[in-house]
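User: Predict the complex with FE2/S2 (inorganic) cluster.
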Amino acid sequence: MPKFMKVATTDELEDQQAKLVEVEGQKIALFRVGEAFYALSDTCTHRGGPLSEGTVEGAEVTCPWHGARFDIKSGAVLGPPAGREVRSYSVRVAGADVEIEV
Ligand code: FES
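Assistant: Here is the predicted structure with FE2/S2 (inorganic) cluster placed in the model:
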């Protein structure tokens, strides 16, 4: 059964910032865009680059290794060389806690 797990508090991330979190053995990149939080698999679908170390612009993240771009909200590919989307996780904010569904 999927469940929501606390991974951070809202004050840990500034707008346009990302953070690597590990939940149940999964590496997940947590992003803040404005007041909203989103989570993608940290592992780029091209060669496994760490998306939590990528450059965030608006709701896009650019992989630090070869520059693939992904939609932070959906995980969709926005630019090569990645050929397929990264997994997106549901996020909810409960009080000051940021929780990811895993
Ligand atoms: S590993 Fe991300 S673009 Fe190559």
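The domain at 4-101 is CATH 2.102.10.10 (Rieske Iron-sulfur Protein).
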